[in-house]
Every structure is written in structure tokens, then in C-alpha cells.
Amino acid sequence: PMVVRGDVDIAAIPGNLASVLYNRTKGAVEVIGINTLGVLYIVENGDSVHSVEDLRGRTIYSAGKGATPEYALQYVLKANGLEVGKDVHIEWKSEHAECVAALGSDPEGVAMLPQPFATTALMRDDSMRVALDLNDLWQEKTGHVLITGVTIARREFVENEKAALSAFLSSYADSVEYINGDVEEG
């Protein structure tokens, strides 16, 4: 709402929300950058899931209903021959921390978790492991990387504040370069 009202010029948001805002505002916002590539993982309590087919008959705990996580999971399941509600059940939680808790209390639990929640689950219990990388599965089926987050700006800002936008994008690029360098070196 703050972007639509003009209170905020630039925002980092989920990719699917950018599409919704673009359509609701009739193009008054635009994507100026991709800030998050796939960070979704199928985490299990145990060691029985090694393929999408291994999810058959299972319940997957997940948050993100109506957002990129749901769409990505539904697509990957369907592309691998599984039908939600018939072959696999998804139990929607209101937040990712609830999924981690459900996973921890279910000896045969499976959850779709983004980072840093996937790492949190692994650190909580050494019987948990990343079973599947949804990003790899997405790319395998689509030929494209899974975009989960983008940076948007109000079109009016983009058109009328070119110097400010350029300064933001330059600083943003410097920040990404620093983080990527620090991660590689650390």
C-alpha cells in the first residue's frame, strides 16, 4: 500500500506481488531488479525423500499460500506427476517458523522451507536434512531460475528521479558485490 500511495518509491517484495501490483496500478510500478533467486527447499525429518516421487502419500508443511512458494511447489509437483490433494497433501501454516515446529514434532515430517528457515531446522535437529532443492527442480522443468523476490519502483519515480534511481542501483550493485565477495571468501 505504501508504494501504491506514493509513500515509498522503491521496495523489495515477493515476485508474485510485483505482478499483482503492476496489474492493480495499471503499470504504475515496475521491476527494477531481481533480489532473490530460489531459496526454497524440501526439508525432511529422516532420510526417505530423494526424488519428487518420494513425496507421494506424504504431507508437506508449508507457508506462503497464495504466493511464490505455493505456485512453485504446485508446479514442481504437477510437472513430476503428483496431484495435490490426491497424491500429496499440503498443510498450510501461517508462517515458516510454524513449519519448522511441525517438522520437528513429526518423525516423518516434510516441509518446504525458504532460507534461513531451512538452516534453522537443520541446526535444531541433526536428523533433519535438505532432501530436495526446489530451485533445481524448477530449473530442470522450466529451463529458468526460480525468482522469488524482486525490487520494484514507482514508475513516476523511475521517470522523474533518474539520478536518485541511478544512485540507488549503483549502491545496490556495490552491496551485492560486497556480499557475494564476502561469502565466497568467508
What does this entry look like structurally?
This protein is of the alpha/beta class. Helices cover 45% and strands 25% of the residues. The protein has 8 helices and 8 strands, in the order αβαβββαβαβαβαβαα. The model has no long low-confidence stretch (mean pLDDT 91).
| Helix proportion range | 40-55%
Class from helix and strand fractions: alpha/beta
Quaternary: single chain
Profile the largest sheet. Answer: 5 strands, mixed
Widest beta sheet: strand line-up:
5-4-6-3-7
**What is the distance, rounded to the nearest whole angstrom, between the alpha carbons of the first and last residues?**
38 Å
Strand fraction: 25-35%
Mean pLDDT: 91
Structure at a glance:
By secondary structure, this protein is of the alpha/beta class. Helices cover 45% and strands 25% of the residues. Helix 3 crosses helix 6.
